[in-house]
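Margin note: ligand = PRP.
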Amino acid sequence: MESDIQKILFTPQDIAAANQRLGQQLAQDYQGKNPLFVCLLKGAILFLTDLVRQIPDSVEIDFMDVSSYHGGTTSSGDVKIIKDLDVSVVGRDIVFVEDIIDTGNTLRALMDLFATRQANSIKIVSLVDKPAHRNQSVQADYVGLSCPDEFIVGYGMDYQERYRNLPYIGVLKPEVYL
Ligand code: PRP
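Resulting structure:
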């Protein structure tokens, strides 16, 4: 895997520092609220598990699987819900946990879907924000790291299901996917 990486953008230390900062902000903002953290599979799984361990108060977690990339390097814009939540969100304080916001298609579709579900509040935390190709008006409330216009993998993010287990976030060599 290492030989497919052109450069490391965020080291494990960068990621840990971002997680700590985000965890502290969320702990403060959601104190006593028992929020429901909705992890968007599969990319956000590593982020979720590190993030919730930064929060000393009670939080609940659930999972949704939504896909728009269908194995390529650009969003198809066609967002498919593969797995919905197990619990009701009525009256709950929801925090969507994303690894990356790119075009915004995924979160736009989710925000539209959740608009009718009667949650008390909905916020978004994204480890990485990549604004270069945003085509939807969607913005994270909490952002860990800002990323240039590169195709990145690692720490949950994949190319054709590989590289998710890299402990850092790196740029994939173009020859791997071109
Ligand atoms: C990735 C990522 C985000 C989404 C962001 O998911 O985890 O959910 O794309 O892109 P967008 O802002 O352009 O919609 P993907 O559909 O690749 O599924 P995965 O998390 O299982 O890899």
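The helical segments are 12-29, 45-52, 105-114, 174-177.
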